[in-house]
Amino acid sequence: MGDKACTIIIMTSKNEIRSAELVIVRDGKAISSHFPCSLIKNERLTVKYVKATDKPKKAVSFSARLPRKAPTRELVMFHVLAKGGKNVVRIMRNPALKTKVQEVTVYAYKGEKVKYALRRDGRFLNTIFKKTCALANISTEVNTEMSNLVDGLEGKTFQIIMLNKSSPSSQQPSTKTPASKLSRIQNLFRVEYGQNAQMCREVKTMKRLMDLSDSVCQVRVNGSARGSGFLLFGKFVLTNGHVVKDVYNENQRHLDEKVTVHFSFESLEEVEGGQEEVEEIVGFEYQPDVSGCDWALLRLRTQRALPDGLLAHSGFLPQSGGICIIGHPDGGVKKIDPCLIVKHENHNQVVEKHYNENQGQIHLITSRFFEGVAQSVQQNQQVLTYESCFYFGSSGSPVFDQHCKVVAMHSGGYAYRSSQGQTQSVIEFGYPLSVVIEHHHKEN
């Protein structure tokens, strides 16, 4: 392993089995036999075999060009589903590979194109290069074409899809795509490109959001992260009721444990400051199934100057477009997630998309789960819905619209674990800030 240029094939070629094809599995995903050893850090690899399709071929074919300017030869890794999208379902040379793994890991050199990396990999059918195919990010649905560079693909998972049908080869039956279907496809991509544009932010908008992010904090109980929150006004922090409900005695109106908020947890390397203790909870409501609300207003015990309250920057729910969530997902440092609103009329489509994409991949989750999600999001019409990467630990985060107005408080989602143990979510939601404020006034 001392030689960074060595590859897996060096260690496995001596044990080649001619009637079978070697499958090397790393972290649940198949890697190529020429995968660089420098990318494997004290990890356990699993060796499996599948039935070979053809006569044994050379392990590596370097017909793909390396980037002309690659002095550092910096490597990039990304993952591809072993099953392609519609009209290009079969993408692997050996279809038996899908019986062992659901994803394959591809390595590439920064500065080279996607198609060169896939050709070098050697496990993909030539079909994906003859047709107009692209990599579709399974989380964001953003497409990366074969002619694009691999530089931004690190760690992401994609499905190979066909953008449009190429001329049929002599080995394939000639089929024509109906004009109505082409029209729907064209409209779909018009919508996708439009949505991507909505996620873009002007520099001045991002600078403004960075200023407002100073008012966002992490909520901790006895030093352990429980959620996120933000300074609403004065010494009062707003978060979700479920973040503190386990340590709050609602009948006696007092906290049973020490609760603190942290405004400057932005880096693991820097010395953390900005910690304030919660004196009391002055407003609390946790009845998501009854009143449709889940909030808590915390009074801080401090005499120090605090960031600006975000109540002065509040607004009403937009019907569509881009939003930004700022919080502490997974109990980590402060982050920002630009995402898109999911309109109420599109809820079922989002649920169906997750169900269709994850059939055969979901662990201990049935179609009833997705049916329940569909019913729940349709019944709760007052919440703002969107697709975000903010899951656990981000409850209580402020949701900003395109004008940097706080319009909602990120509160939850419909999460599940895939067979690889990855956390995924069908859709996320936040309660309108205007509704929370209205309920607070009624309570007082």
UniProtKB/TrEMBL annotation:
One of its GO terms (cellular component) is chromatin. Pfam families: Trypsin_2. InterPro entries: Peptidase_S1_PA, Peptidase_S1_PA_chymotrypsin. GO terms for biological process: DNA replication. This is Serine protease.
